[in-house]
Amino acid sequence: MVLGLSGVEHFAVTDAPVLESLIFKEQPAAGCDDGGRINIACTPKLRILGYLEPRVHTLQIADNVIRSDTVASPSVVVPGLKILALRVNFRVLREVKMLASFLRCFPNIDTLHIESALHDPSAIHYGVTREQHAELWQEASALKCSISHLKRMVFHKFRGHQNEFEFLKFIATDEHELESLLLVPLKGSFNSAAEVNEIIDKLDCPQFLAWASEVLIVSPKMDIARNLHKASDLSINDPFCY
C-alpha cells in the first residue's frame, strides 16, 4: 500500500494478514505539525514501513499509543518489520526522544533509513545542545536490543551537525551486525565525500573512528525514492533508495 496522508486524521491497519509494505508517499506540508495517527494492529507479514515522522505522526501499535517514555514490551512491537524509514530533526530533542521510542517498536529491523530534516528554527526546544543529545543516548541502553540485528543504515540529507554524530556514535557503541553505513550528504552541504571524512577524523571518539573505518561509505549520488512506481513495485527489495 502506498498512501497519501493529506487530510487523514487517523489511519488504522486493523486486519491485513498479507500486507507486506506500507509507504507514506507524501511529506507533510511545511509548518504542519499534525500528520495524523498511524495505528498498526494486525500485520503479521509487514516488513517495510516509512517514512514515519515523530514531528507529525502519532504511532499506535494495537491499543498502545507510543510516547517518548514508552517501554519496550511484546504489546508495542511489530516483530516482522525489516526495513524502516524515519524522518527526524536532530536539533529538536522531542523528535530525537520519539526516534528512540519508535525504534523500540521494531526490534528486528535489518535496514534503517534516516532522513535528517530541518524544520522551522522557532520550533520548541530548537537548539538542543550536544550534551543533551549525548546524555539521551547514554540513557538509551534499553534500545540496544532494538538495533542488534541492524545490518544496513542509510543516512539521507546528512548535514554534519554534531547531534547527528551523537546518534551515529550511539549506533557504534556496541557490538552488532552492522555491515554498511551510507552517509548521503544534503546537496550543497559538502563539496566532496572527503570533506565528510575530514569532519569524522576530527571527532574525539576513537571507538567511533575505528567502527566507521570498517562500515562507513559516503556517497552524494543516492537519493530518496519517492517515485510512485518504484514504491509500488514489490520486486524492489528496498523502495526507499535507488
From TrEMBL:
InterPro entries for the chain: F-box_dom-containing, FBD, LRR_FXL15/At3g58940/PEG3-like
FBD domain mapped to chain residues: 138-171
Domain F-box/LRR-repeat protein 15/At3g58940/PEG3-like LRR stretches: 3-114
Descriptive protein name: FBD domain-containing protein
Organism from which the protein derives: Lolium multiflorum (Italian ryegrass)
